[in-house]
Amino acid sequence: STQSTWGHFLSVYFFSRPPSPAPRAMSDSTATAHTLASGPFCLINGPLTGADGLLLMYGPVAAYDRLADIPRRRDATENVAYDTVSMIPFSQIQERGFKAHNEGEKILTIRVDAAHNLTVQWLLDSLTATEIALALEFDTERQQYADIIQTIKDDMIGNGEGSSFVTPRKCTGQILEFDRNKALTIFSRLLTNEYGCYWKFCFFDGDTRYFIGASPERHLTVRGGLVEMNPISGTFRKKPANTWAAERDALLAFLRDEKEIDELWMVTDEELKMMAAMCPSGGDIHGPLLKEMGALIHTEYLLSGAHDGTDQVDLLRTSMFAPTVTGSPMGNACACVYSLERHTRSYYSSCILLMGREAGGAEFLDSSITIRTLEFRSTGHVSVRVGATLVKDSVPMEEVAECEAKIAAVLRS
């Protein structure tokens, strides 16, 4: 269903369909295992590749302080060209004047020297079989996190500081004898076991850090004069032991749950404010939709509109970052979670950003929110953060269980 010019929400849910990929030639023969054995690289699977495809990009890495520092090329090109792919830290939201902790994170950018279209099967065939044992531990106890949620409900939502908030729960762990083959094996398991993602990606900075994710949520796409965003909220936890009838009834109850409905409307309303700023002539709202993943089902809307010629990096800055990972209203939400969170979010809840040029030289960007994203160090240390959207009707222990389900979904994959 569609509503134009930022109109009213609709109340019928449909399962969303992934965008159709642009036709791209697949060329396994142009890339070798040597590419993945040395130097920085990024692998992406998503709408731009199709379900069975991979985009491999590699080149030198540089660190930058501001979005405007990311290098850009504006010359004409005969074919689609990918220029940079970047990991954006959450603290970049400071460019909007919002509060965020920073512990030295910078924008990490690969300047793309070459890009190849591969198949998922190519990657699977190039890996050496290996066993990986990963156990994660939360940095807060269940009751401690539930108490934080209750504080948000009582002191922040209850006192009118905002209508929704997101503060993550962090997990850490260790993989013994971690190396590139194990990193790519973890990524390959996400490729084969998880579905319903906007992007699955593996970004290696060429030194000590891997980012491996399977994110359900587009952040921002700017292409051909069109701006697109994708607010996602509401989380239904699948129960494989249920009968079909029991699971159907549970899903229908979830869709009728006022708390879940409020979650989606609140984050969508906040993203509509961003879209209205970026697309003053209005746009389209598609939804509500259902996005099914391996262990979870989410609710979502798809938002699109024509921008007025504003530079794409300025549009990206306007969109930082999704209310689904901060709250609403944005400014107050950032200030409130800043007071609760004692440490940086690192690269959680920001975005991985791809910029390039169409044939002829017109610029484009695409990006995915960095949730369900594992951060690995070369030592094998791993961290991952998960959160839940908190509203006035949230039940603390239910939100705790939602975070645990999201971690379980990562481990299951």
Which range does the strand content fall in?
Answer: 25-35%
- The gyration radius over C-alpha positions equals 20 Å
Assign an overall shape: globular
Q: How many individual β-strands?
A: 23
Q: What's the tally of helices?
A: 9
Structural class: alpha+beta
The low-confidence runs, each spanning 5 or more residues with pLDDT under 50, are 1-31
Biggest sheet details: 12 strands, mixed
Average pLDDT across residues? 88
Distance between the termini: 32 Å
Fraction in helix: 25-40%
Describe the structure.
- By secondary structure, the protein is an alpha+beta fold.
- Helices cover 27% and strands 31% of the residues.
- The chain has nine helices and 23 strands.
- The protein has helices at 33-37, 120-126, 142-157, 180-193, 244-256, 258-278, 312-318, 330-340, 396-412, and strands at 2-4, 14-15, 41-45, 53-58, 61-64, 81-88, 107-111, 114-119, 136-138, 164-165, 169-174, 199-204, 209-215, 218-223, 226-229, 232-237, 283-292, 296-306, 327-328, 351-357, 363-369, 373-377, 381-386.
- Strands 1, 2, 5, 6, 7, 14, 15, 16, 17, 18, 20 and 21 form a twelve-stranded mixed sheet that branches. A nine-stranded antiparallel sheet has the order 8-4-3-12-13-22-23-11-9. The protein has a two-stranded antiparallel ribbon with strand order 10-19.
- Helix 3 packs across helix 9 (396-412).
